């Protein structure tokens, strides 16, 4: 049987790495890279480090606005799906690449396999929330990382073919554990990543975040996503003026985990980084109003900060408790998912 996976954004390369290993064991497993992320540091580095086979198809997009970007992906994915006639189309998470793949597959009656199904922020202003709701509602097979995700689907009337299978990023993190080291050679620091439009695309807010990072009691290594680079340049922000911030380009996966693992704590608005900080037993401050990864909030391991960004400082001192080793499954989640596909659905 043939399964085509559609990937395109940084976190999807990381999720696909352990999945592709498993998929190849049982399926003719093809990959489409939509080109949503294209800088070498946002794409190639992950294929190289994580030994992901080169994609069978790769696009080069022109669109900057969501509509055009998604439409360009759909046009290309459709042609491939018509030609390849896969038995399933697999998508991850909630990006525009996810939605483009899912919409094409649904029109062609190709079963959609959604990994990381059922997550909700209940904030429809986030493009990701719309992408994941739509994808879940047209998916044939839904793999959820948490009970809460299963319940979210149930509340929307989706109960058929819903499986609780843990999170494939946990598998990847466990595979990476031998590759981590202290990038800062024993110096104390925090690690930060920020890329959500509601944080980056409003000048005032971006500046308040930078000021709050600058006011912390240890240097902040800030790995800057290209969206954020572009906004900082629009705002004519000179990061050299923020003496406590060590600005670096986006880093590879092993470096991202290394920076997190040896830090005093992590400050982020990323979905994936919230989970990784947790699994690495690091405190995390999430600069968002809500999180889809609710379970990480237990025991202060992850804390939300939105209106009062300056409160990051005191939140970093809160005591931690109730760590859950089993959060989001085992480290064999991808094998569980692919076994279910192989033994049940595609038998
Ligand atoms: C996307 C996802 C978001 C995910 C994030 C992961 C959507 C709607 N958003 O957000 O859910 O958390 O990826 O990182 O799918 N750019 C570059 N080089 C690149 C990639 C992007 O310069 O390699 C710049 C481009 O100017 C682009 C902008 O960043 O217009 C935003 O990229 P885009 O993929 O549209 O959204 P992200 O903010 O990356
Ligand atoms: N990441 C990385 N380099 C960086 C920042 C993040 O490799 O400079 C990794 C991070 O460790 C995690 C994933 O990218 O595995 C998260 O992706 P991102 O924050 O881009 O998207 P989100 O998870 O918010 O959708």
UniProtKB/TrEMBL annotation:
Protein species of origin: Chitinophaga fulva
Keywords: Isomerase
GO terms for MF: UDP-N-acetylglucosamine 2-epimerase activity
Residue span, UDP-N-acetylglucosamine 2-epimerase domain: 22-341
Annotated family: Belongs to the UDP-N-acetylglucosamine 2-epimerase family.
Entry superkingdom: Bacteria
InterPro entries, alphabetized: UDP_GlcNAc_Epimerase_2_dom, WecB-like
EC number(s) stated in the UniProt entry for this protein: 5.1.3.14
A Pfam family reported for this protein in Swiss-Prot or TrEMBL: Epimerase_2
Enzyme class: isomerase
PANTHER family referenced in this protein's UniProt entry, alphabetically: UDP-N-ACETYLGLUCOSAMINE 2-EPIMERASE
Protein name as annotated: UDP-N-acetylglucosamine 2-epimerase (Non-hydrolyzing)
């Amino acid at each position: 049987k043939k399964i085509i996976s559609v990937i395109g954004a940084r976190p999807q390369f990381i999720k696909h790495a352990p999945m592709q290993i498993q998929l190849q064991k049982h399926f003719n497993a093809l990959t489409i890279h939509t080109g949503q992320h294209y800088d070498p540091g946002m794409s190639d580095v992950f294929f190289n480090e994580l030994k992901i086979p080169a994609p069978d198809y790769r696009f080069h997009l022109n669109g900057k606005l969501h509509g055009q970007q998604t439409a360009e992906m759909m046009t290309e994915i459709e042609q491939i799906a018509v030609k390849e006639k896969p038995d399933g189309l697999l998508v991850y998470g909630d990006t525009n690449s996810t939605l483009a793949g899912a919409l094409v597959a649904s029109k062609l009656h190709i079963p959609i396999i959604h990994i990381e199904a059922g997550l909700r922020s209940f904030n429809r202003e986030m493009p990701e929330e719309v992408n994941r709701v739509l994808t879940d509602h047209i998916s044939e097979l839904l793999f959820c990382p948490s009970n809460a995700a299963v319940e979210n689907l149930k509340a929307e009337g989706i109960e058929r073919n819903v499986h609780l299978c843990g999170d494939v990023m946990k598998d990847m993190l466990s595979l990476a554990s031998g590759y981590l080291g202290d990038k800062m050679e024993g110096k104390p620091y925090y690690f930060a990543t920020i890329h959500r439009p509601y944080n980056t695309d409003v000048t005032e807010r971006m500046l308040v975040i930078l000021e709050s990072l600058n006011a912390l009691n240890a240097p902040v290594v800030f790995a800057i996503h290209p969206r954020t680079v572009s906004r900082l340049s629009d705002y004519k922000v000179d990061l050299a003026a923020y003496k406590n911030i060590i600005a670096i380009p986006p880093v590879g996966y092993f470096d991202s985990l290394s920076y997190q693992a040896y830090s005093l704590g992590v400050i982020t608005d990323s979905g994936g980084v919230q989970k990784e900080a947790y699994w690495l037993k690091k405190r995390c401050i999430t600069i968002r109003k809500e999180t889809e990864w609710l379970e990480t909030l237990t025991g202060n391991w992850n804390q939300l900060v939105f209106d009062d960004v300056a409160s990051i400082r005191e939140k970093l001192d809160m005591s931690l408790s109730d760590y859950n080793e089993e959060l989001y499954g085992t480290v064999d989640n991808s094998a569980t998912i692919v076994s279910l596909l192989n033994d049940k659905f595609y038998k």
